[in-house]
Write a structure and sequence with these properties.
The protein is mainly α and 163 residues long. It has helices at residues 11-41, 47-74, 83-89, 102-130, 133-155. The longest helix has 31 residues, at 11-41. The mean pLDDT is 95. The structure holds fe (ii) ion.
Length: 163
Amino acid sequence: MTYTSRLDLGEHVRKQAVALLQARLSDALDLEAQCKQAHWNVKGPQFLQLHQLFDGVHTVVEEFVDLLAERITTLGHIADGRVQTTAGRSSLYEYPLQASGGVEHLKALAATLGQFGTLVRGNIDEAAGAGDADSADLFTQLSRETDKQLWFVEAHLVSDGTA
Ligand SMILES: [Fe+2]
């Protein structure tokens, strides 16, 4: 703990919650950069739509980053958003640098969104089990919104509208 607070969660609870929050903070920072990677580099006939879609996902993930970091500081710890930490701790797939066409970018982002969604859904019960219902609620919020963004991305991968 970095400062004395009237917040009534014990340090043991806070430490467990912060470990979960910091792990997802590193992932969310990576995911945020991956959205821009897609936004900048996508090419092809659906360029404008996908360019805008990927920036929309980025805006949502940017909010995730802020929510996670500020919950860590609320719990009296240091939010580590350093690039070096993010690179070392991200558990997400590395974005394929050579991705070019729309489908390649959609699949790359769908893969990492799916991965992030699985991890954050697991964190709901982990945070609740640690005794921090508020962090569990935060993870629930992120999980629900990640599912929605994954739907937006995956909907573009359905070619005939029936699958
Ligand atoms: Fe832009």
